[in-house]
Amino acid sequence: MALSLTDKRLRAALLAAPLVIFVAVTFLAPLALMLVRSVYEPAVADSIPATLNALAEWDGRDLPGEEIYRIAGMEFVALNAERRLGSVATRVNRLQSGMRSTMLGTARALGNDPPAGSWRDAMIAVDEDWADVSTWLAISRAGERITPRHYLNALDLDRGAVGEIVAQPEDRRIYVSLLVRTFGISAAITLISLMLAYPVAWLLAHAPPSRAGVLLLLVLVPFWTSLLVRTTSWIVLLQNQGVINDLLVVIGILAEEQRLAMIYNMTGTIIAMVHVLLPFMILPLYSIMRTIPPRHMQAAASLGASFWQSFRRVYWPQSLPGVAAGSLLVFIMSIGFYITPALVGGRTGQLISSMIAYHMEQSLNWGLAAALGAILLLLVVLLYLIYNRLVGIDRMRLG
Amino acid sequence: MSIATDTQIEFINISKSYDGKTMVLPNLNMSVRRGEFLTLLGPSGSGKTTCLMMLAGFETPTSGEIRVNGESVHNLPPQKRDMGMVFQNYALFPHMTVGRNLSFPLEVRGMAPDERARRVQRALEIVRLEGYGDRRPGQLSGGQQQRVAIARALVFEPGVVLMDEPLGALDRRLREQLQLEIRSIQRELGVTMVYVTHDQQEAMTLSDRIAVFNHGEIQQVAAPETLYEEPAREFVARFVGDNNLLRGTVRSVDGEICKVQVGEGLVEAFMVEPLEVGDQTVLAIRPERVVLSPSMEYSNTATAGIDDMVFLGDHLRVHVTIFDQPDFVVKIPNFIGQGGILPGDSVHIGWTTIDCRALPEENLNAA
Amino acid sequence: MRSELQTRHSARSEAESQNLPTLTSLTLALALAGISAAAGAQTLTLVSWGGSYGRSVERAWVEPFIEATGIEVQIEDYNGGLAQLRAQVETGNVFWDIVDMPTPDAVRGCDEGLLEFVAAGDLPVGADGAPAEKDYPPGTRSECAGGGIVSATIIAYNDELFPGEKPSTLEDYFDLERFPGRRGMRRVPVVNLEFALIADGVPLDAVYRTLDTDEGIARAFAKLDTIKDQIVFWEAGAQPPQMLADQEVVMTTAYNGRIFNAQILENQPFTIIWDGQVQETSGLVIALGTPRLDIAKRFIEFASSSESLAAISKYISYSPTRYSGNALVSTHLDTGIEMGPHMPAAERNMRRALNSDWFWWADNRDEMNERFSVWLSR
User: Fold this and answer.
1) All domains of chain A, ordered by start, with CATH?
2) Is the ipTM beyond the 0.90 threshold?
């Protein structure tokens, strides 16, 4: 008995192994890597150990002494000769704009023409930023192997002169408001999708099979069209000189100068994303509704309940697992959505994903991208836990 | 009229078609008396469920009128008809406890909580499910679920209770037990009950009256005994209980008695409807009314060849051939002295005129 | 050219990267790393931008190179950025040999040690005999790049919407009174901050100096504020000509090649304002550690000649970076029109052109991006 149970477990484990390995390699490993990157950045520390070592003794208030200038200057020159200073400079530059050219320029100048006397004077002569305490603070902080910096930045925070946490200057506070907006837009999209999808799913679930088949096909057709094509179609429909505005003007609902701004703003993002995500709401709802016997509504009516009462007390609660699954699916997909808001979002319809993509692909600040991703992940997990408390995961079914 | 006050539900010239072409119910007239247990009995597709659904308000008649307490219910939606309904698969709400299921009809009527609790308690007692109020339907057996469904249909004290094959999904033993319970509950509460089934045994057990449906038409409405003893139509004779049916031609008529030529034999029968000499007729003879070695008072006798015998415990079914027609069944009670016959033997059988009913012949090919 | 190519393609790639780009990019890099090991040693992989530009690269450089050397070249498309290249170099599994890259990325990749050096001495002398060192305008070539193509972000307008007076200067783009109507603008700080300052009267050579001060940045945003309500922001390079054609905007910032295509191939009534435009350059770079360094260098040498660079202009309105290449620009191969007037580096188009200072942007881009985002959501 014990043996056969072990056998069964072994077989189950073997059958699941390919998927487990796949998930581990393609999902868990990158996820772990991302979380590590958000706090661990050894590149600078590994590159300029002597400078950082010397700066460790420094009080951080007054300019460092000649000795530190000399150690740092020589290390920069040596690194530059090995073409390794660029990546250090890029990283320091993230803490203080301009540091990239300051470090590279200084290293180049001093490499060509090593100072005979004071390194301090020579470096300040090349770039007066070296006479600024904040320059040295930036280098010393960029040298932290394990750093909370990316999380601070992702929350529009920074560290002040003595390491205290301060808010970023007002004209650079962007991430928190983008996060809030992302969650707000996603919630709106989820809600609107639910309101549009529910009656459609009802129709699908309770129409005669032949008609339901055609309807289901209509729901699925968008899946077969490229996302870009669908997004572009919305531009054609919704833009200021677009089909819908033209129509409204022609039939006299709007005057020429009253044309509605339905795209290149938050409205555009919401409309286009609702359209893209609607099937992900309809299908879970449909598969749950199919399991609700139409007899239940009749039974409720025969017991004296009006349509509204029957729906609210009998049908809606039974469809909740589908509502829960569809909403969660759509919400989480919206949070990570990228192309559609990028194209139709204009000024006010951008999501946090645009910033993550920017830091992934353009600025190569993977640490910050990872921190933003991790915060997003954390918020989604939190939301999921709250949701689970409210709805109960055992009640959430896809079919 | 005294009958009118006694009548609670009337179907007047009701017809129903789903597609506009095929008539499911061509022209139906029927009435249900207050406090009676009426069963709509018939094979599937005979229109009995449609009839019930129209009464409940889930289907609309194509023409005609349904009246309850003398008033047309045509414009009344189901929730205003005051009829408790029990469905084939119970239709209990799985997300509510048994107690909530029962209090649902009371809540939508805005009843006070303590009154609701009292009624729910009482309904649970009636169906002998005290203490099950906090369970979910999914945790109950099929029989228990059906009891809950019945209680739910009763708890708001509707004027009429409708049941659509409520015991169809249960095994036989449970079905028989619940039949008795339903019957006693109905008698106790005195509620009018319209019950749909295709099981004639069930119909017999439960009903005050049975309406036999075939092809959308009512064949006969009568008390179970009457239906059994005095079937008015060939379909009823076939559908309710066992019957030997012999086809023949009327040779002579004398008052309510006629003589019918069946093959070589001449059989004396009681006419259910007046027949003319030369009419085709079907004779219905219950197997248990046929005796072996008949004495002189049996007006009909025949020589029968025994083809087969089946021992069924309390009785024997003997298949014989008479008048050159096989498959005539004789039911012999199992008591001492009824042995001594074997397949291949030739015996005398007989039945009385009153037990032999001459029915008008119908075209029953489709039945 | 960076921005043009980048945005054009970033749009296309989205379908694949709907989720956190963090995950997909890393996963993709891992997956591609595994596949690449199988590639043959003597097939050169050139990564460019696809689309009509990609086809011109194929016709102007790749096909003649294969013919001349017999070396197989495989062309792949990418969406810009250094992310994939960095993943390849860092994992030591390089399968992109040559990448067609905007100069700022090339500079950054060079600084970060992701690219091979390309010495000016290794590049061929110009058709007029000028050494490569002197043949590239200052600040247009990274130490790690050969090749060299110039594109420009310009202002274009739809003729039909200005029946009377036509806009003719960059200032007119900011002048809502004389030229009312919505403006298209790419949703990035790059180029737009420069436009704002130039239109506000800052001399070309003082633009980046001005941006170095907080007051200068504030001045640029203040100028952008004056038309903020009328701006329709775009993301992909294909959007501005479409917006003009749909009359969604009356004027827009755009890449000159896109507008050229609309004018010449689709007969759209668009006009480019060659005034205050910002020029950007791109080049060909070699991934550090490629096992095919020799043939990669041969390709760069081949593609960097004045003739090869000028050949691109037979297909698309981008100029050779090299002075000597510009002299060789002739006609559009498919339509036969004279390309001179359409080229960003044509003399008469260059009267007031700003060379994008990518060194400044490398220092300040992240901060400007944040400030621009704040400005957008304000």
Assistant:
1) 43-145 (no CATH), 175-395 (1.10.3720.10)
2) no
Tokens representing B33 are 């008396």
The answer to whether A373 and A151 are in contact (CB under 8 A) is: no
Q: Is A98 on the interface with B (CB under 8 A)?
A: no
Helices assigned H by DSSP within chain B = 2-6, 48-56, 98-107, 113-126, 142-154, 172-189, 200-206, 224-229, 234-239
Instruction: Give the model confidence (pLDDT) of B317-360 as tens digits.
Output: 888 888 877 788 888 877 665 567 777 778 888 888 888 888 88
pLDDT digits (tens, 9 = 90+) for A98-145: 999 999 999 999 998 889 899 999 999 999 999 999 999 999 999 999
Give B208's Cβ-side CA count (13 Å radius): 15
Direct distance between the N- and C-terminal alpha carbons of chain B, in angstroms, rounded to an integer: 38
Q: Does A213 touch chain B (CB under 8 A)?
A: no
Most C CBs within 10 Å, among A174, A245, A246, to test the C interface: A174
The encoded tokens of residue A141 equal: 């902080």
HSE-up (13 A, CA, CB side) for residue A245: 21
C45, A373 contact by CB (below 8 A): no
Parts of chain A with a pLDDT under 50: 1, 399
Among the partner-chain residues A295, A304, A318, the one whose CB lies closest to the CB of B105 is: A304
Q: In whole angstroms, what is the distance from residue B210 CA to residue B194 CA?
A: 10
Domains and CATH numbers, chain C: 2-150+280-352 (3.40.190.10), 152-278+357-377 (3.40.190.10)
DSSP code of residue C93: -
A vs C, Cβ pairs < 8 A, gives 170
Domains of chain B: 2-235 (3.40.50.300), 242-360 (2.40.50.140)
- C101, C108, C99: which is closest to C46 by C-alpha? C99
- Name chain B's partners: 3 or more CB pairs within 8 A: A
What φ, ψ does residue A170 adopt, rounded to 5°?
Answer: -55, -35
The count of C-alpha atoms lying within 13 angstroms of the C-alpha of C188, restricted to the half-sphere facing its C-beta, is 22
Q: Residue B311 and residue B314: Cα distance in Å, rounded?
A: 8
Nearest beta carbon to residue A303 from set B58, B95, B105: B105
C89 membership: H or E segment, kind and range? helix C83-90
Contacts of A370 in chain C (CB under 8 A): 22
Structure tokens at C310: 């000028």
Q: What is the pTM of this model?
A: 0.82
Contacts of C289 in chain A (CB under 8 A): none
Token pair for residue C322? 């090299």
Rounded Cα distance, C132 and C136, in Å: 7
Using a CB-CB distance cutoff of 8 angstroms, which residues of chain B are in contact with residue A299?
85, 87, 91, 93
Tokens of B75: 């414009």
SS3 B234: helix
- CA dist., res. C111 & res. A105, Å (int): 12
pLDDT one-digit tens code per residue, B23-59: 888 888 999 999 999 999 998 888 899 999 999 999 9
SS3 C113: coil
> CB–CB of A304 and B79 under 8 A?
yes
